[in-house]
Design a protein that fits this description.
Elements: H1 4-28, H2 30-38, H3 42-63, H4 70-92, H5 102-126
């Protein structure tokens, strides 16, 4: 049986991928597209999707045994929720100013997750 961090990484990767498809489809068609386009917020949405998808794939990769560590998975979970989540909120309603500071905080968690992974790779090579 795979360690809990591997299973968690796979589940989160699949969940982020699932919602990436759903949120991407919403922004590409119909009323959500029209709403975002009318406000000039499609770029916010696309940036959120890009980061969400990128980290979904990264979580799936480390969940397959590429040095999955709980710290990396947790940092990326928090990072995607804060970074992409705040951009989705701002894309839908730019008056939600409370969400703005969450974007860079989420970015810091994404960076921390990559740093954690890098340090674990260095530690693994040294052993």
């Amino acid at each position: 049986m795979a360690p809990i961090s591997d299973r968690l990484a796979l589940r989160l990767g699949a969940l982020f991928g699932l919602f990436g498809v759903i949120l991407g489809a919403l922004a590409a068609h119909g009323p959500v597209h029209d709403y975002l386009d009318a406000r000039g917020h499609l770029d916010f949405w696309r940036t959120a999707l890009f980061y969400q998808w990128f980290h979904a794939l990264a979580l799936l990769a480390i969940g397959q045994g590429l040095t999955a560590r709980r710290g990396t998975v947790i940092c990326w979970l928090i990072g995607v929720v804060l970074f992409s989540g705040s951009l989705y909120i701002l894309a839908l309603d730019s008056n939600q100013r409370w969400a703005g500071p969450l974007t860079p905080l989420g970015g810091l968690f994404l960076i921390a997750g990559w740093a954690w992974l890098w340090l674990n790779l260095i530690k693994k090579q040294s052993a």
